[in-house]
Design a protein that fits this description.
alpha+beta, 6 helices, globular, 4-stranded antiparallel β-sheet, Alpha-Beta Plaits
């Protein structure tokens, strides 16, 4: 179905997880039928160890019946990032032609994708609707039991982004006497990427060892 391989196998889910490591959607910057195709191909939520795929799956699930209104053609092949085929050892001319062909195909695919995104954006602008928001519970884990958790929370709350509102927080046991900071935030989906937000939190490397998405719900 796609370059992700068999989505019912662990290797297929891993390929999808790796692909979504720095992306919010399968194609472009808005949900499309490409997401629905992969979503239905999975059949069920990925395990927690595939955090990027699970985050994406939960997000797509939150749209419910609205998924049928996503732009694009359902079931169309989705082109995932993949290594270029190895060059033939005995024919340099063929190598050049092969890469040239791939480049042309990629350029055409990019052009079509940009046209679809522009059309989708124009449609949304012409018909304003409710602002899509999500409530996210983030688990911020310290390095050890000597980390100043109050200072960690104060640092996290200094992060300011258009479309981001911080909510309640609490300390919860992690392991071996170490506590984690569980903090709620509400984000506008079109403005705030949870991946980007998590990266900003992890920049406080004196306090934060890692950040996990504990819960993700539409509001």
């Amino acid at each position: 179905m796609t370059n992700f391989g068999n989505l019912k196998s662990e290797s297929g889910v891993k390929a999808l997880n790796d692909y979504l490591g720095d992306k919010s959607y399968v194609e472009g910057f808005a949900p499309s039928q490409a997401d629905v195709t992969i979503y239905e191909g999975l059949g069920s939520a990925p395990s927690a160890k595939f955090s990027h795929a699970l985050r994406w799956y939960s997000h797509i699930s939150s749209f419910g019946g609205e998924k049928s209104k996503f732009p694009g053609q359902k079931g169309a092949p989705v082109k995932a990032s993949a290594p270029a085929p190895p060059p033939a050892a005995d024919d340099d001319d063929d190598d050049v032609d092969l890469f040239g062909s791939d480049s042309e195909d990629d350029a055409e695919a990019d052009r079509v994708r940009e046209e679809r995104l522009a059309a989708y954006a124009a449609k949304k602008a012409a018909k304003p609707g409710p602002i899509a928001k999500s409530q996210v519970l983030l688990d911020c884990k310290p390095w050890d039991d000597e980390t100043d958790m109050k200072a960690m929370e104060d640092a996290v709350r200094t992060i300011s982004m258009d479309g981001l509102v911080w909510g309640a927080s609490k300390l919860a046991p992690l392991a071996f006497g170490i506590m984690k900071l569980s903090i709620l935030c509400t984000v506008e989906d079109a403005k705030v990427s949870i991946d980007d937000l998590s990266e900003k939190i992890q920049e406080f490397e004196d306090f934060v060892q890692s950040v996990d998405v504990a819960a993700f719900n539409k509001v």
